[in-house]
Structures are given as structure tokens and as C-alpha cells.
Specification:
2 copies of one chain form a homodimer. By secondary structure, chain A is of the alpha/beta class. In chain A, the strands form 3 sheets. A 5-stranded mixed sheet of chain A has the order 3-2-1-4-8. The two termini of chain A are 16 Å apart. Chains A and B meet through helix 7 of A and helix 7 of B.
Chain lengths: 312, 312
């Protein structure tokens, strides 16, 4: 029996046939075409699953379970995707639609939650009792795993760390509130902070970039190269990120905190200052705290974690 | 068999003999005398337990378990109170010291955590799967109960909501950091906000109070009476508190959030605006969220919850 993992994104539908170990033995991908009616997107999801199963040399009758990660919220009880901003979905009956194509149990959860599960089952946080994954991308996604199971709270909305109030009255967020954490610690925030620093440093290499060329990696590279604006911006960024990590510790005190998403590509250059600042700013100064590590599975975490939903 | 609950505070040692229902059938209290060596305080704790047992008409040989709530952190593995600021305790071997006096199993946890357990076992959150108690006093304490058990995290420090970064770079906190939540939503914060509002409103009744007379209740009473400074201060306070409650929902999405401590004495006058602001500011606007209620057990929560530690 095989498990299917679907990573449903705003751009692509990525599907993998996943073994119990987390190994992907067959893949397929198709554009999401998010502007189409949801029934057509789901039809293509089913086609992509069939392609992946064929690529793995298996038969659809071997499918034990299908899991799906969505950039939004899924309601287990009704089997509906309640919100999915990137896809423009609202109250989409994903489970019953998928049941039209496959006679297998279906699971679904938020994409960051699913990625956290992947790390706990087959990535960096294997054998760790409690872990939190923060994905540092356009926004900040987060997933919580307690005792090997995803923790979604009482109404399916736990782990919405990107929007905790970090700086009351601060930067305006896409959600309409001010001061949300992701305005200070996402890749988007690093770009904003980098632009602001560049305005203060006439000699910065960041001043040679058009807005289209400006990205998180450019700021990281500038910081690595000792560019004054880059160094200043990255220092401010890691301060915000470590403050948020201290808040995760204050709330949940997990055994491990994983960093994933675009900014985490900076590797130890990110980890070293973040670890030092968390150590310095944590509340219980002499108590041990969560290990802070880089997520290990990269882009495959969405597929692997989705497949693992049926194996919790 | 009876359970003993000890509420060890900076001022008093309060002990109760507690039935399984949470009913207290005997009590005793003694001053803590926190400036003394910890062995003497623990000796008096044992005396107070004996008094309470006698007052309940029971025998010390009937004691099944002894639980203790401390304003600090206890390490289950070593049996030590690691920190307890009010008592000046650090690495105090409370379990082995208590074992000199009683042949009963001993449990201990943070006082706010213990109060949250009391509410879950015998108070407002009975039969609720997940709850968070916020105590709005000098600082902000918090306790998390998941599936009927206290959740203390991987290193015993979960639920330190008073110090989550709420306003980066903001008010200086007693912990040395800036912008901690309790600087904005504790009783102490309500007093500060009230004083600031009084300076802006020449006609305010709050201007007739000396610093010694100024307290959270005075600000609440002024707000109730329509005093402009009181109304403004209480509105600002409930905005901060509701923002923090939204953050609790963003992180943990519990089924119920309870408000206890001094400020909660304002009752519905506090609850009504807080509920309305949470409803307005929560991230998933159309999803249901935690019920927000007043804690029911008041000062007895510490004793009852401590006794319940042995019954989890």
C-alpha cells in the first residue's frame, strides 16, 4: 500500500508517491491554474495523482491514503477547505470531490503544518517530542507537532504565528492589522528592512538593485560581503526573528524549533546570530531551551508531510 | 484518602484538604516569612499541612498526595524549585525536604498552571478539552491545560505569556526586556495607563488619588462612572488585553480562555469589550474561536489545583 502526498500551491499541484520512510518513489506536477473553477483544479489534482502513481510503477488500487497540504485552513469535520487565499477558495468540499476519483481515505491540513509533520516523521525533528516549524517566505507559516501528531487547536487555526501581535501599532499587514510578526521576520520583511537600510548607506551595493532585483538573498549576500546596509539590515532582521522565537518558547516551550522557507537558505549565517540572540533574550536565562535548527526536507516537505497525514 | 493542596505565595502559605470534587474540607494558613532560610519555610509548610488535616478531622496517614503551586518553576525530574523570585528561591530541593515530613507522593508546578488545572477539574473549564488561564495581577501568569493535563512544555517553561514580545521596543519590563505583554495588560499596566490618562484629563477623579491610593479597581470604577480618563484608560487596556488574547488564539487556538486575577473582578464590564474586540481583530474572521470567560474559583484555585496535580 502506498500513500499519496499532494502539495497544492498557488502555482503548481505537486504530487508524490511516498513510502513509510518518507522516501518519494514517484512524482508528477501540473500548473494549478488557480483562476479556474475549483472543480477543474480538483480534476487536475486527480490526474496528477494518477501520473505520479504511474511514474512510481504502481496502481491506483494500491493507494492507502491521500493527503493534501493547502495554503489555508481545512475543516476535518466537514471535509471542506474553508479558506485558501492564494487559490481564492472558500468552503470548497475537497474531500467529497476527491472521493469522486479515488476510493481511499483523504486527509488535509495547512501546508506549514504538513511540512512540520514531514520534518517530525522523516526530517530534522525525528524522535523529537514537540517541534515548531517556522517557514520564512512571503509571509510566515508555522506548524506545531506534539507527540508525533499535528496540533491544530480546537478550531483548526493554531500555529498562526505570522500574525501574532509583535509590535502593537507598527507596520501595516496584508491581513489589515498592524504589527504582525510576519511584517518583521518574513522574507518580505527582510527586503523592506534592506531597502530602508540602503537609503541610509550611500555606498551600499543594494542601491544598485531595482525593486524587481531586490530579494531576501540579495540582502543576505550583501550582509555576507560586509556591505554596511546589508549587515545592518540582517542584524535588525535576526533580532526580530529571534524575538519571535523567544515568544514561541514563552508560549509552547517546544523541544525543537525549525526554520524553513526562503530565508533559511542562508544556513548557518542565519542560525548563528539567531541562536545567540535567543540565548541572550530568553526569559529563563539559565534554563535550557529549544534547539534551533534548519528544516531538512526543503520543497519536498509539503508532499512528504501530506502523505504522512494518513500515518499519524 | 485525601489530597493536600499548598498555595505557596510570597506572603502566605495557604493549605487545603481537597476532595476529588474540588471541595475543600479543611484549611490552614501561616505567613510565609520568605526572608528566612528555605528549610524553615518548608518546615512551616509541613506544620500548615498538619493543621489543615486536623481542621478537616483527618489523619496525616490518610494523605494520598501533596501538591504545591509556586510562583516560579519546578523541575519534575530533580524535584527542585528552580526559580521563585518572590521567595528568593533558587534550586530548592522541595520534594526531598517535604519527604522528611510526609510519606506521600509530592507534586509541584507553577501557580498559574495549577490554577488553570483547578478550573479544568472543578471550575469554569470542566469538560473543556483545551484551556488557557490568564491571571491579570501584578504581572500576568498563565496556565495551559490540554486534554485535562497541564501542559508545561519540554523544559517546564511553556505558558510564559506575560513576557511575550507584544510591542517591540516598548515599555521597559521588570525582566529587563522591552515591550512584554504584561507591561500592557496586567493590573500594574492598567494603573500606568490610568495615570497617563489622568494627566490628559484635568477633570478626572483619578487626579484626586495619591500613588498609594491608585489601583486597578479605581481605574475600573472611574470608567464605570463615565470619567473621561477612566473610560479612555480602560478602553486602551481592553484593546491591549484583547490583542494578547488574539495572540493566544493564533498560537494555541484553545477551546476556552479564562481571565482571573485582580482585574477580572471587573466581571462583565471587562468581558464585554474584550469579547467584542477579539471578535473584531481575530485573524480568521468567520471562524469560531475560544469562549472567553471569567475564572470561577478565585483565590481557592491555587489550593484546589495543587491538590489536583496528583489526580491528573
Amino acid at each position: 500500500m502506498i500513500s499519496i502526498g499532494i502539495d497544492l500551491g498557488g502555482t503548481n499541484i505537486a504530487v508524490g508517491v511516498v513510502e513509510e520512510t518518507g522516501h518519494i518513489i514517484g512524482r508528477a506536477v501540473r500548473p494549478t491554474g488557480a483562476q479556474r473553477p475549483c472543480e477543474q483544479v480538483i480534476f487536475d489534482m486527480a490526474q496528477t495523482v494518477r501520473d505520479a502513481v504511474e511514474n512510481a510503477g504502481k496502481d491506483v488500487r494500491d493507494i492507502h491514503s491521500i493527503g493534501c497540504g493547502v495554503p489555508g485552513i481545512y475543516d476535518e469535520e466537514s471535509g471542506m477547505v474553508l479558506f485558501c487565499t492564494n487559490l481564492g477558495w472558500r468552503d470548497v468540499p475537497l474531500r467529497s470531490e476527491m472521493a469522486k476519483y479515488f476510493n481511499a481515505s483523504f486527509y488535509c491540513d495547512n501546508d506549514a503544518t504538513v511540512a512540520a509533520l514531514a520534518e517530525a516523521k522523516a526530517g530534522k525533528s525525528v524522535n523529537v517530542r514537540s517541534s515548531v516549524l517556522l517557514t520564512l517566505g512571503t509571509g510566515i507559516g508555522a506548524g506545531i507537532v506534539l507527540d508525533g501528531k499535528v496540533f491544530s487547536g480546537s478550531h483548526g487555526v493554531a500555529g498562526e504565528f505570522g500574525h501574532f501581535m509583535y509590535c502593537a501599532g507598527g507596520e501595516l499587514c496584508t491581513c489589515g492589522k498592524r504589527g504582525c510578526f510576519e511584517r518583521y521576520a518574513s522574507a518580505t520583511a527582510l527586503i523592506r528592512i534592506g531597502c530602508e537600510a540602503a537609503l541610509r548607506h550611500r555606498e551600499s551595493v543594494l542601491r544598485d538593485l531595482t525593486p524587481n532585483q531586490m530579494n531576501a538573498r540579495a540582502v543576505v549576500d550583501a550582509a555576507r560581503a560586509g556591505d554596511a546596509a546589508g549587515v545592518e539590515a540582517f542584524d535588525e532582521y535576526t533580532t526580530h526573528l529571534s524575538n519571535g522565537i523567544v515568544t514561541v518558547i514563552d508560549f509552547l516551550d517546544p523541544e525543537m524549533i525549525l526554520l524553513g522557507g526562503g530565508v533559511s537558505a542562508a544556513g548557518d549565517f542565519l542560525l548563528d546570530p539567531v541562536r545567540a540572540k535567543v540565548e541572550r533574550n530568553k526569559f529563563y536565562t539559565s534554563r535550557p531551551h529549544a534547539a534551533i535548527e534548519l528544516a531538512a526536507l526543503g520543497n519536498d516537505a509539503g508532499i512528504i508531510g501530506a502523505a504522512m497525514l494518513g500515518r499519524q
